């Protein structure tokens, strides 16, 4: 079964990096997946919390815990134990395409970009519920998925690396939100 999934993973990846690439998308998705490109948005999240939430500093603390936890689980625990090579490092496969960015020496499974961004998106989806319309909050989820897709497009992750990272991030984001929400309810009662 794993061989079949691996074959599908390679075929989907190959299709994306050979059939779906274009010069405009090459440029856009290369910067789209860069965390520094999103720095203004991250600042916007912080400003939103400061403006609309009395206990904004607790939200920021929860987000720091969230990102640390999601990154450590994806990079520190799973990548180091699964040890799946990136497409750009996999022997016999890496010669079939050219990645659009530098190919990191770190392992591929799961995608930390996908995990971290989805964890943040799910947390904020619930945290912003009182102050932001649902359609706008769904945009957070789409944003995280698009960053995951960009990781495949630029050639540094297989689709299943990203899919698992998105699912893992969603679970982590929800668990941290659930615990944080319970903490806030308890803190406001006392």
Protein model, in words:
The chain has helices spanning 2-19, 23-32, 39-52, 56-82, 112-127, 134-153, 159-189. It is an all-alpha fold. It has one domain (2-189): Vanadium-containing Chloroperoxidase, domain 1, CATH 1.20.144. The relative contact order is 0.16. The model has no long low-confidence stretch (mean pLDDT 91).
Quick tags:
single chain, 190 residues, mainly alpha, Vanadium-containing Chloroperoxidase, domain 1, 7 helices, elongated
Give the topology.
Elements: H1 2-19, H2 23-32, H3 39-52, H4 56-82, H5 112-127, H6 134-153, H7 159-189
Helix pairs in contact: 2-6, 3-4, 4-5, 4-7, 5-6, 5-7, 6-7
Q: How would you classify the helix and strand content by structural class?
A: mainly alpha
Oligomer: single chain
Distance between the termini: 53 Å
- What series of H and E elements makes up the topology? HHHHHHH
Instruction: Tell me the count of domains.
Output: 1
Helix content: over 70%
| Overall average pLDDT | 91
CATH topology: Vanadium-containing Chloroperoxidase, domain 1
Shape: elongated
| Percent range for β-strand residues | under 5%
Radius of gyration: 18 Å
Q: Give the name of the CATH architecture.
A: Up-down Bundle
Number of strand segments? 0
Largest sheet: none
Helix count equals 7
Any low-confidence stretches, pLDDT <50, length ≥5? Answer: none
CATH top level class name? Mainly Alpha
């Amino acid at each position: 079964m794993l061989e079949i999934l691996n074959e599908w993973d390679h075929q989907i990846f190959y299709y994306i990096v050979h059939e779906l690439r274009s010069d405009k998308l090459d440029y856009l998705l290369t910067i789209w997946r860069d965390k520094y490109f999103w720095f203004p948005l991250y600042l916007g999240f912080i400003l939103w919390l400061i403006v609309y939430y009395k206990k904004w500093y607790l939200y920021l603390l929860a987000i720091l815990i969230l990102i640390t936890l999601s990154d450590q689980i994806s990079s520190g625990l799973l990548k180091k134990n699964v040890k799946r090579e990136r497409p750009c490092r996999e022997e016999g496969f890496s010669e079939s395409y050219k990645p659009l960015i530098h190919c990191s020496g770190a392992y591929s499974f799961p995608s930390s970009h996908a995990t971290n961004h989805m964890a943040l998106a799910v947390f904020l989806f619930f945290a912003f519920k009182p102050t932001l319309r649902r359609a706008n909050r769904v945009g957070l989820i789409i944003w995280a998925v698009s960053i995951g897709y960009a990781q495949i497009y630029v050639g540094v992750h297989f689709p299943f690396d990203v899919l698992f990272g998105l699912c893992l991030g969603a679970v982590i984001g929800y668990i941290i939100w659930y615990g944080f929400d319970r903490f806030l309810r308890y803190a406001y009662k006392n």
